[in-house]
Amino acid sequence: MILSELQSLNLNNFIKTDRLVCMCYFQIMKTRENQSKARERIMETAAELFFYKGYRATGINEVIAKSDVAKATFYNHFPTKEDLCLAYLEERNTSEYENIVAYVNDHDDPRERFMAVIEAVEPWLEANAMRGCCFLNMVAEIPDPGNRLRKKGDQHYDMVHDLIVNVTRQLVASDKERYSRLSVDDVANDYMLILVGAIAMTEVYNSTWPAQHAVETVKRLVE
């Protein structure tokens, strides 16, 4: 009888403890989900403001108001505006590079893969309303070449340059007799200048003609 009561008491305590643990777990998960959604709203708001309005013209209070978060929530995720902008640039670096790689990988022929990098520029510029490149735009706003926001641009274009080197090397290897005169490094460097110049000039003229002309210019590099 006494043993039975003790067992029942222990079981009840276990059930109560188990329920408390579950409640705490779900509360933690709900808090994390809310924090994740808040960070996502902040990032989406900042991305639009930084890209279309500019880094210096965008204030933290504007980001907080438009993303509908509390100041404490904002600063919990991003201690400074520079930290927020760095996260924005890191996200842009990843997404834009992956899009270029995916566009290249849609092609099997080495020459088509070689041309794919520059051919991806015009539709990308049209999609962002000819606003150009966030990394080039940042250079105009941050004069210090050692600033970590500027360095994120270095990283992005180093990755693009490496991609161009790879597709150029593949092209040369596909027909050594035809392309034996070409220097992979020289072609890749010229390609890079054409690509970046086309992006910058498209923003200047608010027209895609520089991107279209760049496609023909890149073709001449290997003809």
Would you write up a description of this structure?
- This protein has 223 residues and is an all-alpha fold.
- The protein has two domains: 2-77, Homeodomain-like (Arc Repressor Mutant, subunit A, Orthogonal Bundle), CATH 1.10.10; 81-221, Tetracycline Repressor, domain 2, CATH 1.10.357.10.
- It is built from eleven helices and no strands.
- The longest helix has 51 residues, at 2-52.
- Residues 20-34 have low confidence and may be disordered.
- Whole-number radius of gyration? 26 Å
Unreliable residue runs: 20-34
List SSEs in N-to-C order.
HHHHHHHHHHH
Q: Which CATH class of the largest domain?
A: Mainly Alpha
Q: Quaternary status of these chains?
A: single chain
Percentage beta strand? under 5%
Quick structural gist:
Helices cover 82% and strands 0% of the residues. It has eleven helices and no strands.
SSE order and pairing:
Layout: H1 2-52, H2 60-67, H3 71-77, H4 81-105, H5 110-119, H6 121-127, H7 134-141, H8 148-174, H9 176-179, H10 184-205, H11 209-221
Which labels suit this protein?
11 helices; 223 residues; Arc Repressor Mutant, subunit A; mainly alpha; Tetracycline Repressor, domain 2; 0% strand; single chain
